[in-house]
Amino acid sequence: MSSKRVTAPQIRSMKGNARIGMLTAYDYPSAKIADAAGADIILVGDSLGMVVLGYPDTLSVTVDDMLHHTRAVARGATRALIVGDMPYLSYHVSVEESVRNAGRFIHAGAQAVKVEGGKPSRIKTIEAILDAEIPVMGHIGLTPQSVNALGGFKLQGKNADDARRLIDEALALEHAGCFSLVLECVPAELGAFITERLTIPTIGIGAGAQCDGQVLVYHDVLGLYDGHTPKFVRKYANLGADMQHALEHFLSDVRDGSFPAETESFHGTSSEELKRLYGSREPEGAIVVEMPKAQ
Ligand code: KIV
After folding, report:
1. How remote is the CA of residue 46 from the centroid of ligand 1, in Å?
2. Cα of 196 from ligand 1 centre, angstroms
3. pLDDT tens per residue, range 177-195
4. Residue in 184, 196, 248, 272 annotated catalytic
5. 111-165: pLDDT as tens digits
6. Which of 49, 99, 100, 195 is the most exposed place for a label (fewest CB within 10 A)?
7. CA neighbours closer than 13 Å in the CB half-sphere of residue 166
């Protein structure tokens, strides 16, 4: 595996050649670990709002929140392509503001941005961001920033009309110039159909096994999030419980006096010498000072 930074064109050319592994990360240590594990793409996802900041959804996340975390991820990941997730309202108001916001992600250390949705007005915005030389990853299906409009976090594209709309959006995003497309929470048959129809790679999350790549949220993979876990998540560890256990162990060692041990302490002037210089505290609190003897 080359240590050189993965690029958006390289991701595009992986279609049909190699499956793409993508993870989210939100800070220096998570980015460093995901990068060392070999992620092709690290998404600084706006899922930050739920798994790191404790909001019930992603809608409260601001551009400033995202940039702060993108900078930390950029310091931690040297190989994976870093994609900054444009948060709610950062690309909805005007095309000009969207391009400016996308550029801020690039200044923060991302090499591409992700934008949710594929309706005609969104395609115009994406074209303008691409025109500013910023690679764009699309995202359709269950787009969490539309949770209120969709009526909840639900499977999308179940009936034929919805499936047709998603296929049209996928084709429009490819035509606009997106280098890849996240498909979230759609039936496996639809995930496979869109994957087969597109020349750009699809990256699935709850979209079946036929997508060109898969993405999961870091905290879900590692068992660090105790909120709702969707059916499509596979937990590879239970680190939240392991971390709590480790912290309980530390606190118990503090309370029973077994931390720190001799090997975890520094040594300098002996306690006898310190007592000789500064005195010792008597049991009732009186200070006894031993004066140096006159020569
Ligand atoms: O914010 C996020 O983590 C995402 C992924 C789930 C694709 O958008």
Report:
1. 6
2. 22
3. 999 999 999 999 999 999 9
4. 184
5. 999 999 999 999 999 999 999 999 999 999 999 999 999 999 999 999 999 999 9
6. 100
7. 31
Express each pLDDT in 7-35 by its tens digit. 999 999 999 999 999 999 999 999 999 99
The answer to whether residue 184 is catalytic is: yes
Type of residue at 65: D
**Protein residue with least CA distance to atom 2, ligand 1:** 45
Pairing between strand 287-288 and 280-281? Answer: antiparallel
Q: Which residue has the tokens 């691409």?
A: 130
Q: How far is the CA of 246 from the centre of ligand 1 (A)?
A: 29
Torsion sign (Cα): 58, 234, 32, 41: negative
Residue matched to tokens 């084709």: 171
DSSP readout, the chain? ---SPP-HHHHHHTTTTS-EEEEE--SHHHHHHHHHHT-SEEEE-TTHHHHTS--SSSTT--HHHHHHHHHHHHHH-SSSEEEEEPPTTSSSS-HHHHHHHHHHHHHTT-SEEEEE--SHHHHHHHHHHHHTT--EEEEEES-GGGHHHHTSS-----SHHHHHHHHHHHHHHHHHT-SEEEEES--HHHHHHHHHH-SSPEEEESS-TTSSEEEE-HHHHTT---S---TT------HHHHHHHHHHHHHHHHHHT-SS-GGGS---S-HHHHHHHH-EE-TTS-EE--PPPP-
Mutate which of 147, 205, 218, 232 for ligand 1 pocket (most atoms within 8 A of beta carbon): 205
Q: Are 141 and 156 in contact (CB under 8 A)?
A: yes
Q: Which residues form ligand 1's pocket by a CB distance below 6 Å?
A: 24, 43, 45-47, 85, 182, 205, 215, 217
